[in-house]
Amino acid sequence: MGGTLLSYAIATFLARCPGPARRLAPRSSFALILLIDDVRSSMMARLFPPASGNAARAVSPVRSLIAAVLVCILTAMVAPAGPAVAQTTGADSTVISFDQAVNIALDQNTNLKRASAEARRAETNMWAERLDWMPSADVTSRLSRNFGRSFSQEEGRIVNESTDFFSIDGNASLTFQGLGVQNWSSMRSAEYQSTSADLSLERSRQDVVFRVMNNYISLLEQREILVVQKEELEARRQQLRQIEEFVDAGSRPISALYEQQAAVAEAESAVLTAERDVQLAESRLIQVLRLDPMTAYDFQAPELEEDVEPETPYQLDALMQQAYNQRSDLRANAASVRAAEREVTSARSSYLPTVSLSAGYGSNWSSTATELVGPNGQVIETFSFFDILDRRRGGNVGISFRYNLFDGLRREQQVENAQVQKLNAQYDLEDTRLDIALEVREAYLNYQTAVKQLDVTEKQLRAARQAREAAQERYNLGAADIVELTNANRNFVQAASQRIRARYNYVFQKKLIAYYVGSLNPNESLF
After folding, report:
1. Apex CA 490: angle with CA 486 and CA 494, to 5°?
2. 452-495 pLDDT per residue, tens
3. Cα–Cα dist 118/452, whole Å
4. Fewer CB in a 10 Å sphere around the end CB: N or C, the chain?
5. pTM
6. Residue ranges of the alpha helices (H) in 48-172?
7. Residue 206 and residue 198: Cα distance in Å, rounded?
8. Residue 50 near residue 20, CB atoms below 8 Å
9. Neighbouring residues of 180: CB distance < 8 A, sequence distance ≥ 6
């Protein structure tokens, strides 16, 4: 009883320990019970020797060995409990790189899944229209039994009899709608629609990559701004400590301390705002990737050169021509126009006659034909199953023409609907072409501005840093007040933030041009 209470107390202590020790409490309790019970049994055996000591000596070593092994194992498992907890804490968040984020978005984006399903459906329709030129074929087989009363000419009376019947037939037919014009037009239309669906799928993949890139760059930009705001907060806190020393020494008025405290509070507010912006950017990226919002993620920043050098300037005319040749959505709309043109031809073919070709071949068997009976009722010859099928086999071929004289203006309705769809497809093509021109032009102008901002923000940041250093020195010498120093610090923070935005904006605008001209490859690394 005492051993059990002692083991329970130790197990309770382990249960209050953090990490793996808590999970080992039940198992350690079991091992301690064995060990303590073994010790108790040994002491009782020495004080009160049993009548048969062999059984005690046989059981006690085994229990001691089991208990010792369990305690050793538990001790080894509890020993590294500290490092295990640290590793678990460090692995709470899922690390995702930019390339992994792109792959996740390509796998989980619902719009991309819809486009992929539409491409498969269009391909299936295309093959169905192609095989429409092939004849349709079928095989029909029938097995039946007729029973009841009938008049027998051989016996001259009404008898009850049953008759078995079997037949097998094969048929093939081929129909040329509108003398084959409709078949051909529908096939070509389905091919163009399949091409359009594939190109739309390609553009959807580029859209997904662009959205991931846009949100990823926005997140990295907000992180960089947060770093700048934290550094500025630390600098203002150091200035606050310095001003406190000046005020205590009587070299600065108390108002300077109050103003610096306000500046520190302003910097703290800016850090909170920057942290909120980072969290919002992460939430938007998680939404784009369709990840679990309850899980923590660590989005790794891709390698971005510190000194971004502008590349060879783009030519607007060359970018326009490249976009017209490569944009998947423009090519998809062009394929849709050609498909609509074939639909108009298909609708007009309803004014032509329809030609149908058919052929069939088959045979049948009946139980009444298995025997050849003579005039006297004697069986002259017996036929097997296959003999009867061979004697009764035969076929047919045929051709038919059908011309619709009047169908309630349905043909005119089909032609008009097809022409309207063709016009809508042409309008969509024109709108897409105009949108591409505006997008490329806007991206080109934004890129030119981004290139200029790289140089301007670099000069601005260098000047703001020098101005802050000069203001700090003037303030230390007493030649400047706290307002001048605060303004210099604020200008430096703004210049640093604008420099960060300029660097990321340049990278984004360069990728934006690739997206708008249609050269963005989802399978290649973007950084």
Report:
1. 170
2. 998 899 999 999 999 989 988 888 887 887 778 878 888 888 88
3. 44
4. N
5. 0.68
6. 53-78, 81-90, 98-108, 110-130
7. 13
8. no
9. 355
